[in-house]
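subagent[fold] <- orchestrator: predict structure for attached chain, return tokens only, no commentary.
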Amino acid sequence: MAPNGYLHAGAVVTFADSCAGFGCMATLPDGADGFTTVELKTNHLGTTRDGTILCRAVVAHTGRTTQVWDAVVTHKESGRTLALFRCTQMILYPRTTGVAQS
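subagent[fold] -> orchestrator:
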């Protein structure tokens, strides 16, 4: 909770980014070994002082080098939308040494 007693906005962003990240890990292209968030945006539409929050993340784009995810964070008890979230994930591949073999 933030000092004012409401759900901290940073916690909402972290929750949404984590949900999108789990989705990204589950849909990595062949040969990829990870990802990193390179861009994110959140529209905070509401907040809460109690209850449970839920997040649903859905992929908007899956490519070889990037994925784009949309997530909606809601308050379970009231059904109110608390935040709309979008992020871009850069897909990571194992590094090669770049040294030619003889």
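orchestrator: received. Logging for downstream: Residues 9-26 form the longest helix (18 residues). The helical segments are 9-26.
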